[in-house]
Design goal:
By secondary structure, the protein is of the alpha/beta class. The chain is built from nine helices and seven strands; from the N terminus they run ααβαβαβαβαββαααβ. Pfam families: PIG-L.
């Protein structure tokens, strides 16, 4: 998870997620139509926790439908607090995977059968390693997979690079690609026209799914705490946690 520019003061109070009229017009789609029966679900997350922010509710629904699940964590998120002694890269390389295990447990996912691949790439540098990402991701895909990853225009360099690389990997293997916006929702309302609304579909979530998703996000203690000693704000700011109250998730087909 990366803070993009949510904490730099340039964003207006009206952001896409709470102001765009197009949100109410997005067609709904059921998980069973989004992912055919028997298909394996693969989530490619740039950083630990992106799978919760992007599709924590959808993962619960697909797990309940008995779809096999695979999570590919491209990085271990150890560079999320640059310059911090409290949250050093060495500490985070151990701590953040532990947070992920707890978050997945809070979602109610079957940890005993979940296949989890950790890529070990360095975060904040994925665009420079994009040519390596596609073959790495493709190694774990197969025809018929339905693959969820961050939107290639999400607005965060790592998210964008993983989105592009996953698109290539899916084209190479015959898997189906579905993209998920995370930080894009927090752009100023005037940028709503950049969203591919025609490709968007809305997956409805019930109250319990939303509650479990929010509970899972709070497993990332390192991301809820910045480092005041160096003026580093939390990676998960309140405005992002507030958006997670919405009773739906958006997928770009």
């Amino acid at each position: 998870m990366k803070p993009a520019t949510l904490n730099d003061g340039r964003h207006t109070p009206a952001q896409i997620w709470n102001s765009a009229p197009q949100l109410a017009q997005i067609p709904t789609i059921s998980p069973s139509l989004l992912v055919p029966a028997g298909s394996r679900v693969v989530v490619v997350a740039p950083h630990p926790g992106d799978e919760v922010l992007a599709c924590g509710g959808l993962l619960q629904l697909l797990s309940a439908l008995d779809h096999p699940l695979k999570l590919i964590s491209i990085t271990d998120g150890s560079a999320s607090h640059p310059g911090s002694n409290q949250w050093s890269a060495q500490r985070l390389s151990v701590f953040r995977p532990q947070e992920s295990v707890e978050a997945l447990r809070r979602l109610g996912l079957p940890l005993h059968s979940l296949k989890w691949i950790r890529g070990g790439f360095c975060d904040n540098d994925l665009a420079a390693r994009e040519q390596l990402l596609s073959p790495f991701i493709a190694r774990y895909l197969q025809p018929g997979d339905v693959v969820f990853t961050t939107w290639r225009n999400d607005g965060n360099a790592d998210h964008d690079a993983v989105g592009r690389a996953t698109a290539i990997a899916c084209a190479l293997t015959g898997a189906r690609l579905l993209e998920l916006p995370i930080w894009a929702w927090h752009r100023p309302a005037r940028e709503a026209g950049r969203m591919p609304w025609q490709c968007a579909r809305k997956v409805r979530l019930d109250t319990w799914s939303v509650a479990r998703k929010r509970h899972a996000a709070h497993a990332y203690a390192s991301q809820l705490l910045g480092d005041p000693l160096i003026g580093l704000a939390p990676m998960l700011p309140p405005v992002l946690l507030e958006r997670m109250r919405e009773p739906y998730e958006i997928v770009f087909l």
